[in-house]
Amino acid sequence: MKDLHRDPDSPGTGNETRLPADTILASSTDPRGIIRYANPQFCEIAELSLDEMVGAPHRIVRHRDMPKGLFYLLWDRLKRGLPVCAYIKNRTASDGVYWVFATITSTSDGFLSVRIRPNAPFFETIRTVYRDLRAQEQAGRSPEQSARALTEALADLGFADYDAFMQAALAEECRLRTSAAEIGNCCLPRLADLSALLASAEERADTVGRDFVKVRSEPVNMRILAGRLEGASGALGTISQNYDIMAAEMQHLVQKLRCRDAGALGRMRMALDRGRFQAQVALLMNQAAEQPDFDGATQLADQAERLMADSKASLAEISAAARSIPDICRQLRHRINGLNVVKLLCRVESGRMQNADTGLNGIIERLENFHAATETNLAALSTKADQIKANSMLF
Ligand SMILES: Cc1cc2nc3c(=O)[nH]c(=O)nc-3n(C[C@H](O)[C@H](O)[C@H](O)COP(=O)(O)O)c2cc1C
Fold first, then answer.
1. Are residues 211 and 140 both part of a single domain?
2. Of 88, 150, 201, 356, which has the fewest Cβ atoms less than 10 A away?
3. At what angle do helices 297-352 and 360-392 cross, to 10 degrees?
4. Could you read off the pLDDT of 79-107 as tens digits, one per residue?
């Protein structure tokens, strides 16, 4: 009986049990984390009866090696109504251990969690991070400081914040455990397509932004030139001023596209990440609900349904934000037309100075290249935005 919950191919070493690949441990709690339900798989691996579980705080399965900082962060998020995913080492009643990748979400009257076997490379990484955190805690670091150190350690690993880490980890854990057939039946492949479309739109906008930074110095070049060239200085100085003003307006519009929190593409990325996360958690909850002999199956299925509705709402945000992009691109193109006039004036000045090697031709050429490339990139960005809008309305 005891070995039923061990992975037959790789049962784990020593007192460590490795969960079978398809097992999901589920539990629900009240708002303080007091257990209301636990599925038979969870009871079995924890070596506790349902009676022992129900009414106990979740710390009944807590392992002493776990850093307090992780639980500080976990409760901080839950209290703010945010979901949380975490790699957790739990203990069994006979002091055995098993690792899980846990996902916890809020319900109307508490919390619901599903735990799967960790498989992704993130798992190894996080074990090292936890070991360091625990050592620092033993040396006197507070749980709050330790939680901060955890996000800093994740930032060093390239994750902007804990959300970025847990979204990446959940995506990878889901990908590794979900069969091709199950994936085919859910919206995740379409979300992945949407993510790829958005990535190419982001790339176009980044290219516009980067090219733009390059030509931003041209008005300065013009002014330097104006200072050097007697007679032409008045005209070139004015031209450079005009270019500067229009370029500043363009920069503002580029920000409207690319700013991480407020820009249209930034909002779309956040909505997509959130929508994908919600759909992945819903998938896990549905899988858990399908396991036999579990009183809480209905609650899990209801929660999955709610999360799918939230996911659809997130995707509706994407199509709303996508709608604004062609208009921003139009405004940018309009500014480029204005810059074309400036470029033309440059040409006239260059013509007036005929054979003089002024450096103006180089500036004109760079502006021409920038205008042509930006036209192409903005047209492509508009098309991508339309595709994203159409795709995000399919859910
Ligand atoms: C729904 C839910 C599930 C939880 N699952 C676990 C778990 O599997 N293992 C664990 O150690 N803590 C889990 N916790 C966190 C515990 O409530 C608790 O914070 C943790 O065990 C550390 O104990 P302490 O806060 O008393 O130090 C869970 C909390 C909630 C709300």
1. no
2. 356
3. 160
4. 999 999 999 999 999 999 999 999 999 99
Residue 71 and residue 194 share a domain: no
Distance CA(379)–CA(326), nearest Å, equals 9
Residue 84 pairs in a beta bridge with 104
Containing structural domain, residue 159: 2-177
Which atom of ligand 1 is the closest one to the Cα of 27?
1
Q: How remote is the CA of residue 375 from the centroid of ligand 1, in Å?
A: 54
Pocket test for ligand 1, best of 59, 73, 92, 133 (most atoms within 8 A of CB): 59
Residue listed under structure tokens 């290249």: 369
pTM of the predicted protein model? 0.85
DSSP 34: B
Nearest protein CA to atom 11 of ligand 1, as residue: 62
Q: Looking at the structure, do residues 221 and 159 belong to the same domain, yes or no?
A: no
Q: How far is the CA of 62 from the centre of ligand 1 (A)?
A: 7
pLDDT at 8 over 60: no
The neighbouring-strand residues paired with 37 are: 28
Rounded to an integer, what distance in angstroms lies between the CA atom of residue 48 and that of residue 339? 73
What is the number of structural domains in the chain?
A: 2
Model pLDDT for residues 173-206, shown as the tens digit of each residue: 988 887 766 666 677 888 888 999 999 999 999 9
Measured between alpha carbons, how far is 376 from 384 in angstroms, rounded to an integer? 12
- Are residues 168 and 83 both part of a single domain? yes
Instruction: Pick the last residue of a domain from 177, 195, 221.
Output: 177
CA atoms of 278 and 184, how far apart (whole Å): 17
Task: Determine the Cα–Cα distance for residues 285 and 26; give it in Å rounded to an integer.
Answer: 9
Pocket of ligand 1 (CB under 6 A): 27, 29, 33, 57-59, 61-62, 66, 71, 74-75, 88, 90, 102, 104, 111, 113
